[in-house]
Amino acid sequence: MPHQCHHIVKRLGIFFAIFLLCSLLPCHSRAATVRIKDITDMEGVRSNQLIGYGLVVGLNGSGDRLTNSIFTRETLISMLNRLGVNIRDQERQLQTHDVAAVMVTADLPPFAHGGNRIDVTISAVGDATSLTGGTLLVTPLMAADGEVYAVAQGSMVTNAFSARGAAASITRNVPTSGHIANGAIVEREVPFNLKNRQNLHLSLRNPDLTTASRISAVINRTFGHIATLEDPRTINIDLSNSDPVSTLARIGDLTVTPDTPAKVIIDEASGTIIMGANVRISTIAIAQGNLTVQVTETPAVSQPGPFGNGQTAVVPRTNVAVDTGHNHHLTVMPSGTTLHDLVAGLNALGVGPRDLISILQAIKADGALQAELEIR
């Protein structure tokens, strides 16, 4: 009896191991689910773009040439005058190469308060060759309404280097553009009262009626009837009978299965092809093959023997190769063929990205491609 129990326990252990292994393996038939907050935005909760004009100093001779960049020279003179240094009478003698005029950009995130810090990006606007090692002076950053929302200053990082010699030079990355982490201090807030909102709209980043309907359904199953579908992009959330902040936090963690349209995107410049999982084609026959003639010239040199009276001559040698594409076959793709089957079939024909672009365009022209074809 103990021996029999040992076999039963052993079999249960094997079954449990198999079950555990199957649960860890990826399930291709199960559609991927995502959180609602990863595919939607809250209406009114957005960042604001900021821009400013300033000076970078401390460059090692790689700044603007003041004789060429008039705006850099005038900005430098105006700044020195504000600091009590009057050089208007000697401005022609101003020949420094350690200053550069720059544009400073930043994104003011939502719910940023006064005193918070944000990252800034600095880009040269003159003929400076490098901003490496420079320091950005105090630069007000304005929004589209003309108001100053942040002030930037600090030592910048370019993550680039350049070396130059008499006959050669080398450059890595872009030395005329850099950034300052936490380089700006927020001075003005963008008001948005989320606590007192009675309703709020969720906006899908990729509008789709099926996905929006699924989001509305999962919210209503969890919180009651508080979500109303308005259009393929917008879902209205009624927050009048609940705490808006906690409710939106819980809504963001709900998961749905997004639906993606059947779409093929082609970038002819780079030869890139992106096809969605829902792409289908009708029954067609595909053949790919071309006549290729390759002519190679490898001339040989004929030398006379030692102490001979002959002359050196060039003897032409030509090699002609013809490829008729006899190894390429006609392939029939049945109706309802999936993306995986289509790619596998075309790869079996030895079709490259460039040829695949032409084939997809021909399939679309024939009406067999059941998807939207976008060519960029």
UniProtKB/TrEMBL annotation:
<dbReference type="Pfam" id="PF02119">
    <property type="entry name" value="FlgI"/>
</dbReference>
<comment type="function">
    <text>Assembles around the rod to form the L-ring and probably protects the motor/basal body from shearing forces during rotation.</text>
</comment>
<keyword id="KW-0282">Flagellum</keyword>
<protein>
    <recommendedName>
        <fullName>Flagellar P-ring protein</fullName>
    </recommendedName>
</protein>
<comment type="subunit">
    <text>The basal body constitutes a major portion of the flagellar organelle and consists of four rings (L,P,S, and M) mounted on a central rod.</text>
</comment>
<keyword id="KW-0732">Signal</keyword>
<dbReference type="GO" id="GO:0030288">
    <property type="term" value="C:outer membrane-bounded periplasmic space"/>
</dbReference>
<dbReference type="GO" id="GO:0009428">
    <property type="term" value="C:bacterial-type flagellum basal body, distal rod, P ring"/>
</dbReference>
<keyword id="KW-0975">Bacterial flagellum</keyword>
<keyword id="KW-0966">Cell projection</keyword>
<dbReference type="GO" id="GO:0071973">
    <property type="term" value="P:bacterial-type flagellum-dependent cell motility"/>
</dbReference>
<dbReference type="InterPro" id="IPR001782">
    <property type="entry name" value="Flag_FlgI"/>
</dbReference>
<dbReference type="GO" id="GO:0005198">
    <property type="term" value="F:structural molecule activity"/>
</dbReference>
<keyword id="KW-0969">Cilium</keyword>
<keyword id="KW-0574">Periplasm</keyword>
<comment type="similarity">
    <text>Belongs to the FlgI family.</text>
</comment>
